[in-house]
Design goal:
- 35% of the residues lie in helices and 31% in strands.
- The protein has four helices and four strands; from the N terminus they run ββαβαβαα.
- With 112 residues, it is of the alpha/beta class.
Length: 112
């Protein structure tokens, strides 16, 4: 029986935005499970929202994947927003001084 992926994504197209619901852990060795599918969405969309409510853990390489997506999106005129940050993800973003850059949206869709 195959081992299920450590991270799964659900993609929902909503009007002018794409919402990517992340479930599981964004850890070393698994970052392409997020980076590859989301990077393929960038050329065709102006707004991509990563909903991290289901993300239970993230390490520095997971954070690196978010930064890579942010840079790729910005270079192509696409906005990448993070929503529903869990406590540990928020702490990691604050600790690395990336919170103001990556966390454009707060817990309830309000601007930070």
């Amino acid at each position: 029986m195959p081992i299920p992926p450590i991270l799964t994504l659900t993609v929902e197209e909503k009007h002018e935005a794409v919402i990517v619901l992340c479930h599981g852990k964004l850890l070393a060795g698994e970052t392409d499970l997020l980076y590859l599918p989301v990077s393929r969405l960038i050329p065709a969309h102006r707004l991509i929202i990563l909903d991290l409510a289901g993300l239970t853990q993230m390490d520095s390489l997971g954070l690196g994947a978010l930064v890579r997506l942010y840079v790729s999106a910005k270079a192509r005129g696409c906005t990448l927003e993070l929503r529903n940050l869990g406590k540990k993800v928020r702490e990691l973003l604050v600790m690395t001084n990336l919170f103001p850059i990556l966390a454009a949206m707060g817990e309830h869709g309000t601007r930070m």
